[in-house]
Amino acid sequence: MATSTRKSTPGYRCTECGWTAVKWVGRCGECQAWGTVVEAGAAPAGPATKATAVTTPATPLPRVDAAAARRTPTGVGELDRVLGGGFVPGAVVLLAGEPGVGKSTLLLDVAARAARDGGTVLYVSGEESAGQIRLRAERIGALEDQVLLAAETDLGAVLAHLDQAAPSLVMIDSIQTIASAQIDGTPGGVGQVREVSSALIQAAKTRGLPMVLVGHVTKDGSVAGPRIVEHLVDVVCQFEGDQHSPLRLLRALKNRFGSVDEVGCFQLVDSGIESVADPSGLFLSHESEPVPGTCPTITLDGKRPLPAEIQALVAPSALSNPRRATSGVDSSRVAMLLAVLHRRVGVALAADDVYVSTVGGARVIEPAADVALALALASARADRPVRAGWAAVGEVALSGAVRPVAATAQRVAEAARLGFTDVVVPAKVDAGRLAAGIRLHPVGSVAEAVALAIPGE
Predict the structure, then answer these.
(1) 251 and 162 in one domain?
(2) pTM of this prediction?
(3) Residues in the chain with pLDDT < 50?
(4) Cys-Cys link to 248, which of 14, 241, 378, 455 (CB 3.0-4.6 A)?
(5) Which Pfam family is one of this chain's hits (predicted)?
(6) Is 98 annotated as a binding residue?
(7) pLDDT in tens, 352-370
(8) 99 is in an annotated binding site
(9) Domain housing 122
(10) Phi, psi of 133, rounded to the nearest 5 degrees
(11) Same domain flag for 114 and 235
């Protein structure tokens, strides 16, 4: 009697995203990463897993208890804005950012606030000693008895602390420093990070415990470690900031419980980190008199309108190839607008050095700032300022036409709130619906915008 045998073929798996293949390839077919596909052992061929006994019967959706998923506010308004209202029981948040950006300071502040509200917070540090964290907590006023500090790097010890302390909130700083004795490899390696993350996420889900995992970032600014970790967690947040500026921005790259279009603003101070509910003053120069070469605009970061002031300086060049220097704006966009101004408006800048920057370290990369950028360049070339109290919104095409942009009504409303009296907007928007205590100047071309906003042009 012949017996059937199950054949097995070697399997290969991507260490970043988990994509599988029957043969080795140099580049992952899912995440397009190079050199991440490794042999995963035998992949037995045969029927799928058979059905087993049901442990928990399916529940009709209207009968599911929603009280267990109610959010708990963190007490930090800007963090609650990004999370969608606070921590959800059992939710795991991955907080990534460059070293020194303020991740640990923010988490200590959140831990202290949770302790003052009657909760117990377990703060696990694998990078800094207990003494270093104690000094930081003392500096920012976060010394609370209910904040339990554990300096551990072993996964088994961390899980034991969870059983012993029974906290209401857990913070792991950072996930790359925790290692499991059951897995070979150094802490921070692909296998270790995957195993540690899976164990901690399972512990958070089974206990209904909100947990924050701090993650490192790579040189290009993306979250370090295997991509599968981002798929397992519920929320992925990126903490950004320039080392030369106290401003910090918190963005949600993934959020299963809320929107990813919200941005939180923070400011580093001597006493720690503070929420900035209205960051408009950080991006405007507040000059008493109009200065040539400056023009404000209203950008949109996610769903949040933020003002930005673009500054330009034009000077005669002694070089055969005039210099073009930018800070906070897209250099290719500046080059395009220089060509449009030369060809469509007659503002010749080919023989001049051009310097373009933003105020307060703001990054303005969206096309909606094109009109303001063009006005700043034309104002600097003519050495005449843009009219006082004016702002500009609109995208400039290669033909010189001003095109509509998204959320124009929201931008105009923010300009009115900030005290601007006039706004240059694209001609194809409904100006009657946008007027709210502010004068609008619809323009169809960048030449028309320059003629309106710069006296004498």
Answers:
(1) yes
(2) 0.77
(3) 1-7, 42-45
(4) 241
(5) Lon_C
(6) yes
(7) 999 999 988 788 999 999 9
(8) yes
(9) 72-277
(10) -70, -35
(11) yes
